[in-house]
Amino acid sequence: MQLGIRTGLGDDWLRIGGMKVYADGSLGARTAALNAPYHDDLQNRGILTYKDEELENLIADAHRNGFQIAAHAIGDEAVSVLLRSFRKLENSEKLRHRIEHASVLNSSLIEEISELKLVVSIQPNFVTSDTWIESRLGPERASYTYAFKTMKQMGVLTVAGSDCPIEPLSPLLGICAAVDRSGAQALTVNDAISLYTRNAAYASFEEHTKGTVTTGKLADLVVLEEDPREVPVSTISQILVLMTIIGGKIAYRSSKLL
């Protein structure tokens, strides 16, 4: 704090973001902390990285010193423990604290996330890569895994990323995965695009310079060969990027435009 290092320090090219905290592990390794055993490993509920008091103190210290918290929590038990810590913060909305992943949820957890005005950072491509979700969690919990649409309906501000290098970097892959999925949690194309643009800019305190095509903003843009809203949803990931513009200057131009 004495050095002035906190979230937001820097400029439009490089700045301090959130402080990453790991509350649990992963579903792939069966280390994500669940409130009931894994469906395919009945002796295992995953792990919590910190004791409750340790996590509470860590989050309180980061908050007090001006750091946005980006807390990795995949399992419902890990999310529940995090929420107990976030509930004790004063003026927590100011720093737009985030839960990274929040993969396994239920309606009561989503409601509390919404009430606390926490940001949830999701990785839509997990929907396509985690083919074993139902066998690992069982059908009931699987129905609330990657609950993108329910979070939107319940007022949770959700942003999206890739989790690269775990998943490929391309936002078009993530948009495709969020839209082209079975069940009730599929998003519209417009909603999926917002996860990577307007919502993401807000989560990083950059809504006044990025996130929408608006006069006075930085003009960080891409030009696509096709409109994602007009093609079959299964082909969104195949759309070609014709041009990338950063700060109003062309940084990449496809050979198709030469």
Q: How is the biggest beta sheet arranged? A: 5 strands, parallel
Per DSSP, the total helix count is 10
CATH architecture of the largest domain: Alpha-Beta Barrel
User: How many structural units, i.e. domains?
Assistant: 2
Summarize model confidence as the mean pLDDT.
95
Structural class: alpha/beta
CATH H-level homologous superfamily name of the largest domain: Metal-dependent hydrolases
Adjacency order of strands in the biggest sheet: 1-2-3-4-5
Oligomer: single chain
Describe the protein in words.
The chain is α/β, with parallel strands linked by helices and 258 residues long. It has 2 domains: 197 residues, Alpha-Beta Barrel (TIM Barrel), CATH 3.20.20; 40 residues, no CATH class. The chain contains 10 helices and 8 strands. The strands form 2 sheets. It has a 5-stranded parallel beta sheet. A hairpin with a 2-residue loop joins strand 7 and strand 8. It starts with 18 loop residues before the first strand and ends in a 5-residue tail after the last strand.
Per-chain topology:
Layout: E1 19-22, H1 52-64, E2 69-73, H2 76-87, E3 98-101, H3 107-115, E4 119-122, H4 126-129, H5 133-137, H6 139-142, H7 148-153, E5 157-160, H8 171-179, H9 189-196, H10 198-203, E6 221-224, E7 241-246, E8 249-253
Parallel strand pairs: 1-2, 2-3, 3-4, 4-5
Antiparallel strand pairs: 6-7, 7-8
Helix pairs in contact: 1-2, 8-9
